[in-house]
Amino acid sequence: MSAGFPTTNPDVQINSLEVLSNSWYTLQKVDFNYRNRAGEWSTRQREAYDRGNGATILLIDWTRRKVLLTRQFRVPAYLNGHTDGMLIETAAGLLDEDDAATAIKREAVEETGYEVRNVVPLFELFMSPGSVTERVSFFVAEYTPDDQVNDGGGLDDEGEDIEVIEIDIDDAIAQVGSGKIVDGKTVLLLQWAQLNDPG
Predict the structure, then answer these.
(1) pTM for the full model?
(2) b/e per residue 37-56 (b: at least 16 CB within 10 A)
């Protein structure tokens, strides 16, 4: 077994990793031995898509009862039946070389135009563990209109075209129920807000 493969699960022995694609991110074919609950070993193959780890944040103004969200076109959602592919989401992005808190502050100002300082970590989740390696760190931060430092909208050199939308908390939660907001990370954070609403 090659060095660098995980070895912490005694019921899994990774035999090989083959890179199938390294264009946008990395798609690997994994060949491994797996011991099931009956103690029987079998050899299996799976594919894993590695795009790095990410972070997302709910920007919330409890005083005015507003949340700051984004709307942008998402090709995978469009290909899988979303009417126009325009998803309403919390600000998010990949960590790149930063820690999660630093990365989400960067992404918040790039996407929304608001500079947040006191980000509160909530939890870390695997959003699609059947095929994607990404672990997402979830944050919340309070904001006020005074925290706006630019118009947001994302980075042109990354091909981003992000609309910033500010809506009432209750309206956002209602849009989850109506199916207008269908992004998983955003639904989770809005439900967190509903459960932790100080009002």
Answers:
(1) 0.91
(2) eeeeeeeeeeebbeeebbbb
